[in-house]
């Protein structure tokens, strides 16, 4: 049973002090690793839909309350208005295949990815606004923008469902956050901009294109936003019978066109068709020589299909109930490409592609240098391929994708996860590290060496681009999780150091991670939306006791965002 059975543990989330159990911890590493995950104690039907948890791991020993030779691992449930309302009235919340609903509306799980912005920290989710949290306490500060500014996909008395992206981007030159919002019925798409303060965001409708599925990722260059329909299709049936679309639209929107249109206007972009399906993609920021994007395609991966107790796996064996709720793993070999888009000519050039069924199954998550300098001239793209896991592929999914996946090329047995360091523009594998089949690595995080020196931005190391620094990876195992640190210049050397908790503790699977140069309290002097700002006449449609619960939560939270949790 190679997939750790502990990966969906519903145990508590204690503070832990990790210790070095192998290798030597380098002296040129600093800051914090932050990781998002889904709280399995809230019993989500789909494992990805639990309440949001943010974990902060200190990368320097003896900090954040740890002993001098220990590293502080600090998880916290993000106490959003959604979570606070559930705690007050748990009996009215119901977990479904598509999230958690209630008379208040749909819970904003905020559980998918951490998004650092200078010294600020946000948590994201595909069906809710970004949530700002305090980097020190990991407590809720504010949601971004008034709910009506986002044009909710499903409005509600208190908690609207906002179809957005789990991966908004921070513009290093315009000083803003770019996101999107989408109408789940028409597919109409809008770009959203948040300038870092205030109670509102600006929104522009994108004409000439609709997205029929989702917008899990957006990326950017200096002049363009790159938006693509991503491989997650909503299915309201009791038993999922749909398949993700094999292709979808991609649109380039010029940033200057958004600025000149003014808030509330409409813009047109350059529309392309992209195949095969994709979930994550990353552009090089410098577009002077062309718009180049690494596309981590996901053929045969259905995030919406989760495992059930009555399922049988790819080889006809009963699926272990311990995996109930985990998403269906890759049914096809992974494909990664570098594509260059020309919005004037309307052309797409296939610059490079990586496809090796003997090595690479399921492009899971990746790491890169997110400093401004690293985005301008990226040199490495580090990608974890999760491997082939027949016990995480159910026969229901194989029926849905009949004709689009080829079971005859399945490996005869489980294959291990591989971390591949790829040359950014050619996708040439420069180094690899393979785990044992019992290991389950999660999101790699790039950590620069000696960041913030003279002439460099605070996030940039001595030699930006992604080749000089470290990759920190949380690895799940039933004997206990560990954090491995690999040299980004040569991951084939294996971990240079390994952290582990003292008692072999296990944790729920980690989703996306990021690096923070330091953890300081959220700034006090910014105007932000308060939960009370979202409460209006729509509240009157609720029973009086539920109205009172919403008002009580609002009274407990910052008003206007002018204070934060101590």
Unreliable runs, pLDDT <50, ≥5 residues? Answer: 561-566
Number of strands: 35
Measured by DSSP, the beta-strand proportion falls in: 35-45%
User: What gross morphology would you assign?
Assistant: globular
Largest sheet: 9 strands, antiparallel
Whole-Å distance between the termini? 44 Å
Number of helices: 5
Let me know the average pLDDT: 95
Could you give the order of strands across the largest sheet?
31-32-33-34-1-4-3-2-35
The radius of gyration over CA amounts to: 22 Å
Class from secondary-structure proportions: mainly beta
Helical residues, percent: under 10%
Enzyme class: oxidoreductase
EC number: 1.13.11.-
Organism: Nonomuraea roseola
Cofactor: Fe(2+)
Folded structure, characterized:
- The structure is a single chain.
- The protein is 7% helix and 36% strand.
- It is mainly beta and 566 residues long.
- The protein has a nine-stranded antiparallel β-sheet, with no helix packed on it. Strands 12-13-14-15-19 form a five-stranded mixed β-sheet, covered by helices on one side. The chain has a four-stranded antiparallel β-sheet with strand order 8-9-10-11, with no helix packed on it.
- Strand 14 and strand 15 form a beta hairpin.
- Helix 1 (81-88) packs across helix 5 (544-556).
- It is globular, with a radius of gyration of 22 Å.
- It comes from Nonomuraea roseola.
- Its EC number is 1.13.11.-.
Topology of helices and strands:
Layout: E1 16-23, E2 32-39, E3 51-58, E4 71-77, H1 81-88, E5 94-96, E6 99-102, E7 105-106, E8 113-117, E9 120-124, E10 131-133, E11 140-143, E12 169-171, E13 176-182, E14 188-194, E15 202-210, E16 218-220, E17 224-228, E18 248-254, H2 255-261, E19 266-268, E20 270-274, E21 278-283, E22 291-297, E23 302-306, E24 327-328, E25 335-342, E26 347-354, E27 363-367, H3 372-376, E28 380-385, H4 395-400, E29 418-423, E30 429-434, E31 440-448, E32 469-476, E33 482-487, E34 495-500, E35 510-516, H5 544-556
Parallel strand pairs: 15-19
Antiparallel strand pairs: 1-4, 1-34, 2-3, 2-35, 3-4, 5-6, 6-7, 8-9, 9-10, 10-11, 12-13, 13-14, 14-15, 16-17, 17-18, 18-20, 21-22, 22-25, 23-24, 25-26, 27-28, 28-29, 29-30, 31-32, 32-33, 33-34
Helix pairs in contact: 1-5
